Amino acid sequence: MATTGTLHLRSVSARLTVFLALLNALDSVNCDEQVPLILWTSAGVSRPSPSPPAAGHIVGQQQLSSYLQTALSDGPRNVVLFLQDKMSIEDFTMYGGAFGNKQDTAFPNLEGALMSSSSPLVLPAVSWPASNAVIGQLQDQLETSPLYMDPETLSQLRLNASSPALLVFRLPYGTGADLMSAKEILSGNDEVIGQVLSTMKAQAVPYTAIYTALQPSREAASLSMEAGLGGGRSLLQAKGGYRERERERERQRRIKEKAWIYAPVEFKEDQETCILFWAKGLSVSILRSGRWEDHDLTPSTFGEEVSHKLHGSSCDKTRSKLVLNYENVLGHRSFRLIFAMSQRLYKVSARRWFTLDTVELEYDGTKAKFNGSRKVYAPAEYSYRCESVTNFRWPQLVPRTFTDPANQWRVSFEDFQIQGFNVRGSDFSYASDCAGFFSPGIWMGLMTSLLMVLVLTYGLHMIMQLRTMDRFDDPKGPAISVPQTE
After folding, report:
1. Which residues of the chain, if any, have pLDDT below 50?
2. For the residues of 256-293, what is the DSSP string, one character each?
């Protein structure tokens, strides 16, 4: 009996070292351009433990793809991705209770999941451009579309161990000088992780979980100051020329960050660019069984690693058509997103204008057409830009008819910009924005000013109507008598 208890204690102690090893590994890497990535499987799932990278090694996109392929080939193919807006290694060293103070940790659920997993994988330094592409890599390896979920809707979803699924949970991150606010947000994110893992455990479906972020959350210089103010140990030692080095490092980071803003989709005819298209976010949704199923097309449309399939596109002086070809979108093997544009001379304005005539979804032989010519237009030599182009919220796109299949679809473009004519080089021309000059705020100001002018005019008019007495009592003359008649 004593021997059994001793073995149990040794097993628990070995598991406790997993999270401590995570903190030690994370503490040895600089956070300026990397984000951590943690991968583990559900309890009871055994798979070969992958070899972690060497200390100080930065995992690139190809190596990360190899790690994910190995994990998914040997482990469960139901993937739960916790994607935080920002995260750095110092978030674990500062808020993870790394120095024996485990009661003050902000990651109790994450620590419990790592201890229960047979072979967790900790990548302390993943280049954040590679972490940005993790959704696309998982989508290609699982051959399924990502589902953006929240803990409440997860309980309504029924998963199957035999069919792969990619569930994405977006987690926020607080920024600012208040250290407690960041810790509270990380604790809230850990509670979300705990709720999701509890729901997955209740459904008894094995899963592979991944926790990472889109970009680093902290800068080395600001972190050193925060650690000194918070009374903890200083993570960076002050040396000669420290501030100059940190400024140069920050400048290089910003240059790289700007370089990773993806370029627009570019279609060329006879080696000359004739169509440009860009959007910060691109998604489609279909109504099935009373529920909307979403699919994010952004990772498949933009990025340096994306190979654009534009067959079917064309352009000339009066008409342009951009065709984006996809595969396996919302259960459809072939899926096409088509933008049809035209330009002509309008005699009233004495200039040429281009319009986005239709936005068409073509899938498995079915066509869904949206009319955009009434709202999406610009001078022919300009590009068109709008913060949001949708068919359901302040719609600029409307279905062609009431019976068109487009009534079952939702299309959303965030920070949308397109140009189909008079393109010079690979840059957009001056943008004609969809926001009108007279915004609601301007109208409110004009109406208030008009009301005040009317009140002032009425007051002046009333003052001008006042009449003074034309006769006054003279004390040297006879008194003025006013006869009173009964």
Report:
1. 1-16, 18, 20, 23, 25-31, 176-179, 220-240, 256, 258-260
2. HHHHTSPPPEEEEETTEEEEEEE-SEEEEEEEETTEEE
- 63-94 per-position pLDDT tens digit: 888 888 888 887 888 899 999 988 888 888 88
Contacts with 311 (C-beta within 8 Å, 6 or more apart), sequence order: 323, 325
Structure token digits, residue 345: 């001379």
Q: How far apart are CA 13 and CA 5, in angstroms?
A: 12
**pLDDT at position 274, please?**
92
- Determine whether 352 is exposed, middle or buried from the number of CB atoms within 10 Å of its CB (0-12, 13-18, 19+): middle
- How many other β-carbons are positioned within 10 Å of the β-carbon of residue 183? 17
> Quick one: DSSP state of residue 225?
H
354 contacts 421 by C-beta, under 8 angstroms: yes
* Count helices and strands in the chain by DSSP H and E runs: 12, 20
The helix (H) or strand (E) run that includes residue 37 is strand 34-41
Q: Which two tokens stand for residue 375?
A: 């709202």
H helices present in 122-166, as ranges: 128-132, 134-142, 151-154
Q: Give this prediction's pTM.
A: 0.45
Cα–Cα dist 371/395, whole Å: 10
Q: Shortest CA distance to 405 belongs to which of 373, 372, 366, 371?
A: 366
Which residue type is seen at 45?
Answer: V
> What is the model's pLDDT at position 448?
95
Q: Which residues of 375-384 are buried (b: 16+ CB within 10 A; e: fewer)?
A: bbbbbbbbbb
Residues ≥6 apart with Cβ < 8 Å to 216: 31, 32, 33, 34, 35, 86, 87, 88, 128
For 478, counting Cβ atoms within 10 Å of its Cβ (0-12 exposed, 13-18 middle, 19+ buried), the class is: exposed
Q: How far apart are CA 272 and CA 118, in angstroms?
A: 55
Q: What is the pLDDT of residues 115-148, one digit of tens each?
A: 888 888 888 889 877 888 888 888 888 888 888 8
Q: What are phi and psi of 253, to 5 degrees?
A: -65, -40
**Helix H or strand E encompassing 122:** strand 121-127
